[in-house]
Here is the input.
Amino acid sequence: MTADSNPPIPACASADGVWRRLRVPAGLGAVAPGGSSWVVEGGRIVWIGADAELPAAYAGRPEFDGAGRWATPGLVDCHTHLVYGGSRVQEFALRLAGADYEQIARAGGGIVATVAATRAADEQSLYAQAAPRLRALLAEGVCALEIKSGYGLELATERRQLRVARRLGADFGVAVRCTFLGAHALPPEYAGRADAYIDAVCASMLPALAAEGLVDAVDAFCERIAFTPAQVERVFIAAARLGLPVKLHAEQRSDQGGAALAARHRALSCDHLEYLGADGIAAMRAAGTVAVLLPGAYYALRDARPPPVQALRDAGVALALATDHNPGSAPVLSLLLMMNMACTLFGLSVDEALAGVTRHAARALGLQHSQGFIDAGRPANFVVWDIDAPAELAYWIGGRPRCTIVRQGRIAGAAP
Here is the structure.
């Protein structure tokens, strides 16, 4: 981080005006890497060009001098479970003592423990618990994120989770995509009756929530401790009937063929992927499905098998990054830290990590036309960083470079 010699850009209600002398990393904007200006009007970028080419029509507008700073698109956290009740701090100690993810889940911990706490929480309590988590992400420049349900596993609580997610987006002025994850785990009342629970997900829960406008996409967990490919496919078929895109928690603990299944259904993304094989990679490439890497969960679970990054790279599959914020396997509240971990643990380059939290993450949410890239005609979602080089965004461990965040055309202010 620089010892800032430039005065900070002042915070104000609107970002409308001329933003001068900004540099954008290659591949993240329709701008020259060496320096550009753009005009924000009515919350959208309406012109981009060289500083000396500003049209006379925009003369006299308020000016924001970037003074050669680096700017990126607003960051996108494309996989979070941000709304839930309680915590699972006790499982941290169990893992340190040697218990693994599946042992904790089979002993009644894991997802079902959070289900109990979430079912016991009312809507206002869920909102109050989630809001500080969201503030932490927004302070680092996040301008869009996904929030999944999946800790209710019955209609009323899934509805509460999704209603809270919608409220958070509206109240904090951030784009939130709500994903229905009813097929996350088998609830206790359906023990031994997984197919009957999938019946309820497909015939009752999903149609009701979609009719209320609470669902933007549908997810599932395809794994030995969760649901089989056949059960997941039933969920995907139900989603298709409602015109909803799908995504999948796939190949996290074993290769169940979930990624290939999801790709056949034109999934937006497959996420985790530590055990992804060649067939799944080929299917994802053919479908244009994004691979979402979750290094926080890999780290917290002390996994030894990283996702096949080089094979995905060789196949041309887009690589996105996300926090996977959840109370058990990834209590992560920093997307910048995930950039560092992806570079350090998975071997991504800085350019790949930057694309992974911007344009590829936006694709993983179906938001590629409004998020993740700086271009004329798009909503004004960008971050101006006080850094000497873009690599600093992945370099600092626990540091947060000072920045000015423009989210949905409004200046959010400088993060400390």
